[in-house]
Design a protein that fits this description.
It is a single chain. The protein is α/β, with parallel strands linked by helices. The protein has a single domain, classed as Rossmann fold (3-Layer(aba) Sandwich). It contains 5 helices and 6 strands; from the N terminus they run βαβαβαβαββα. The strands form 2 sheets. The chain has a 4-stranded parallel sheet, with helices on both faces. A two-stranded antiparallel ribbon has the order 5-6. Helix 1 packs across helix 5 and helix 2 packs parallel to helix 3. The longest helix has 20 residues. The radius of gyration is 15 Å and the shape is globular. The chain starts with 16 loop residues before the first strand and ends with a helix. The relative contact order is 0.23.
């Protein structure tokens, strides 16, 4: 007996993606956007199929993500932001709420919503995760979007 195997293919050709980007900490989020865009194009997406949506901060990403997901215009939504811990627990609140909301939007809409919001303990850690020694979390989120869109099409 042979079993059926479904695996994501890393081919973004024809994929329509909304890239939601926080203006807050834009020196980091612009690098996340570059990483995500580069990943999608290198895997076959057309620049014309990528829509960049700037929002004020990470907290506003879920509202735009829901609108994009239910619009029927996108195969995936990639959320890009950077929340740096300060002297209070505010960052924890933002990170928790954004993460939960993005997951809920994906499950409710059936459209993959990838969380590329960097959660960092310090500015240095944020820089590391936005394109230096720890990689680029925008690239990682875009790559995950390509794979899960492929898996869902096969299912």
């Amino acid at each position: 007996m042979s079993r059926k195997l479904i695996e994501g293919q890393l081919n973004a050709q024809g994929m329509r993606v909304a890239l939601l980007v926080s203006r807050f900490n834009s020196f980091l989020t612009s690098q996340l956007l570059e990483g995500a865009s580069d990943c999608l194009v290198r895997h076959g997406a057309s620049e014309a199929d990528l829509t960049v949506v700037w929002v004020p901060g990470a907290n506003e990403i879920p509202m735009a993500a829901k609108a994009a997901a239910v619009s029927g215009n996108y195969d995936a939504v990639v959320a890009l932001g950077a929340v740096i811990r300060g002297a209070t627990t505010h960052a924890d609140l933002i990170n928790t709420q954004v993460s939960r909301a993005l997951s809920a939007i994906a499950l409710e809409s059936g459209v993959p919503v990838l969380n590329g919001v960097v959660s960092a303990e310090s500015l240095e850690q944020g820089i590391e995760r936005s394109g230096t020694k720890a990689g680029n979390k925008g690239w990682d989120a875009a790559l995950a979007a390509i794979e899960i869109v492929s898996v869902l099409k096969q299912l």
